[in-house]
UniProtKB/TrEMBL annotation:
Keywords: Membrane, Transmembrane, Transmembrane helix. Residues 226-387 form the DUF418 domain. The chain crosses the membrane at residues 12-30, 52-78, 99-132, 138-157, 241-259, 283-302, 323-342, 348-368. Pfam families: DUF418 (PF04235). The keyword Calcium does not apply. The keyword Amino-acid biosynthesis does not apply. InterPro entries: Bact_Transport_Assoc (IPR052529), DUF418 (IPR007349). This is DUF418 domain-containing protein.
Length: 390
């Protein structure tokens, strides 16, 4: 999840990754790290404020922040592969080993938070390996094919043939419904076991049901293309590209978002509506993600905003460490074996906790970055990646 140390480091990428991580952290906090619970006896004004905060954060970051991570994952894959190719090395086998290490980090993270994305990235990342030698046209074609959600389009075709068919509830609901049994309990080991068994099944099922596997690989490939085209370096040509992308993405997002909010009234068949909703939501999220990325890059490359956004860089350089640390801290704060704060905090209080955690991690990262070339887990990942290398 972190770019390699190179002479001309792309600081905008570090900052963008840090921005994505902080936004993920805020979402996880208002969700109580997947413990969906609304405290009783809150004043009416706070209930209203909680709803505004919840809706606003999910509008801005829900389904978008993880996609930014995926985009930058693909970019990192290109940078690492390209750097090794210049040295006459084939990075593919080493990258597969690196993904196995990431999967192990993901399992550790999953013990604390079942919604982990590291294991998903590690699995989907394997599909990059056979595609690395393809030219840009083929990569773009495959990325677009995955983006349109081919499996769900097939499901939609079947639903159109039989619109009155009754469809079962998503399988993930069954697993998510069991989560309260262990997350709200006071046993740490019980929570770890539940997260690694029931929780992983829930997340894998949910990711498949919502087209995340196709969406992740598609975004990986778009990130790889961005690396090949050197789009994140500062130049007049790239400024024009990001400006056009910014405009096009928001133009695409507006009708997609309006459609998303009105699907229930437009489509009567539940079978058709569910497939359309899965497809349309992924398109909406990706268009707004591109809007966020292009806007961030344009702002970062201006003198007025660079100093404001630069503090995200230290967090982004240690994204793997911070992603795991925030899961450990969040579980300790909200789950039953810890402080059990899910009982007392709505979105407003949880947002304040999330901001506090982001500030603490930001200060830690700034201090650590001055003394070390890699974050704590990044150092382990880097050293383990190159075990046995000459």
């Amino acid at each position: 999840m972190n770019t390699p140390a190179i002479k001309n480091r792309l600081h905008v990428v570090d900052a963008l990754r840090g921005f994505a991580l902080v936004s993920i952290m805020l979402l996880h906090n208002i969700e109580h790290f997947d413990v969906y619970f609304s405290p009783a006896n809150l004043p009416a004004w706070m209930v209203s404020l909680d709803k505004i905060i919840w809706d606003s954060l999910f509008f801005l970051f829900g389904g978008k922040s993880y996609a930014i991570f995926a985009l930058l994952f693909g970019l990192t894959f290109f940078i690492q592969t390209n750097n090794q190719n210049k040295r006459g090395n084939d990075f593919r086998a080493r990258f597969a080993w690196r993904l196995l290490l990431l999967f192990i980090f993901g399992i550790i993270n999953s013990a604390f938070y079942q919604g982990d994305i590291l294991t998903l990235y590690a699995f989907v990342g394997l599909f990059l390996i056979p595609l690395v030698k393809l030219n840009n046209k083929w990569i773009l074609a495959i990325a677009l094919l995955l983006f349109i959600q081919p499996y769900e389009l097939f499901s939609l075709f079947k639903a159109i043939q039989n619109p009155d068919i009754k469809i079962a509830n998503p399988i993930s609901w069954t697993y998510f419904g069991k989560m309260d049994e262990y997350v709200k309990a006071d046993s740490f080991l019980g929570t770890v076991y539940g997260n690694l068994t029931n929780g992983k099944r829930a997340v894998i099922a949910w990711s498949w049901e919502n087209g995340r596997f196709f969406h992740i690989l598609s975004t990986f490939l778009f990130g790889m293309l961005a690396g090949r085209m050197n789009l994140f370096s500062k130049s007049d040509k790239n400024t024009k590209f990001w400006t056009k992308t910014f405009i096009i993405s928001i133009i695409a997002f507006v009708p997609l978002f309006i459609l998303q909010k009105n699907l229930s009234g437009l489509i009567g068949s539940e079978a058709i509506r569910r497939s359309v909703q899965t497809i349309e939501t992924s398109w909406t999220n990706l268009s707004f993600m591109v809007f966020l990325v292009s806007g961030f890059v344009l702002l970062f490359n201006t003198n007025a905003f660079r100093n404001v956004l630069t503090p995200f860089s230290a967090i982004g350089k240690m994204s793997l460490s911070n992603y795991v640390f925030q899961s450990m801290l969040g579980a300790g704060i909200y789950y039953g074996f810890g402080l059990g704060m899910y009982r007392y905090t709505g979105a407003t209080y949880s947002l304040l906790i999330g901001i506090g955690l982001a500030l603490i991690l930001g200060l830690f990262c700034t201090w650590w970055d001055k003394k070390h070339s890699h974050g704590p887990l990044e150092a382990i990942w880097h050293k383990a990646t190159w075990l046995g290398a000459k």
